[in-house]
Amino acid sequence: MIMPERHLPSVMIPVAPLSSASFAPFGDIVSEDGALATVINQNFAERYSDLADVDVQANGGKINVSLMTAYPRSAPIVIALMERHPLGSQLFFPLQDQPWLIVVCTDPYDISSFRAFHATGHQGVNYTRNTWHFPLLVHDSPGRFLTIDRQGPGINLEEAWLERCVRLPPSW
Amino acid sequence: MIMPERHLPSVMIPVAPLSSASFAPFGDIVSEDGALATVINQNFAERYSDLADVDVQANGGKINVSLMTAYPRSAPIVIALMERHPLGSQLFFPLQDQPWLIVVCTDPYDISSFRAFHATGHQGVNYTRNTWHFPLLVHDSPGRFLTIDRQGPGINLEEAWLERCVRLPPSW
């Protein structure tokens, strides 16, 4: 199948390591890194608490705990569509120790606002409500994720088809 | 270090595979098994939605997303203490494809009410509020888990030290 977006003009953007400073405008990084461990369970466990601001109660919403499997997109990865959720946050955490990719922006019609990150298999993210993001993105092999987002009344999905696409480099 | 509970009388109970029918009195199994997949993200992902009844709002509570690392207990695994959370549910999902163990009961002073399960690395559990359970339990090697439970005002932990301990068999 030929993906139609491959024929649109596209601009390559760099892929940076996921870090709190650069991801802060878009949400939380869910990770042990930089978090304070509490020793519990008679010293048989460590706990890193309160790693994400889950925001799902608008308009009568409630939490939706899901499992997702994402299938790899072949190179070059071209971003032709962005989405956001006006009624709730959305958290993804990888269930295998494999890197994955994140593409966000503040304005889907402004290429300069796009950021791409590579996350480790120990890093999840929680997009704040209304953060524009590309859907779950893996390369090389399928990836399972635990997802925490919102279910409930109201329209909680907006999509934007890009006028100019974003392309990720073949390696980073 | 000699664990004092090793000297208490103990009763061995069987360890059964985790299954919905047998775990139902204690909570949800969080798993793709038996759940309906929805194809999303332009056919690049499958989603299994609404896998757990997260119940954390009592008494002004809110969700707490945590990461935990559990360290293995050496054989024989002896259960001398059970705990429960009167104000909220508690969900654990494994972050590596390794089996783990679950011990629950309806009455910590009634050995016949105890059940032990071995879960796969693709199965999480969500204990309903007030379900008596042993803390996170791994064998062989440390295990990382994503946890969804409650934070907020009030006392959300009850512990019961057993009069007669429960012991798990060396293999199952």
Description:
Two copies of one chain form a homodimer. Chain A has 172 residues and is mostly beta strands. In chain A, 2% of the residues lie in helices and 44% in strands. Chain A has one helix and 14 strands, in the order E-E-H-E-E-E-E-E-E-E-E-E-E-E-E. In chain A, the strands form four sheets. In chain A, strands 3-11-8-13-6 form a five-stranded antiparallel sheet, with no helix packed on it. Chain A has a four-stranded mixed sheet with strand order 2-10-9-12, with no helix packed on it. Chain A is globular and about 60 Å long. Chains A and B meet through strand 5, strand 6, strand 8 and strand 13 of A and strand 5, strand 6, strand 8 and strand 13 of B. Strand 6 (62-70) of chain A pairs antiparallel with strand 5 of chain B, so a sheet runs across the interface.
Keywords:
homodimer; 4-stranded mixed beta sheet; 1 helix; globular; 172 residues; mainly beta; 5-stranded antiparallel beta sheet
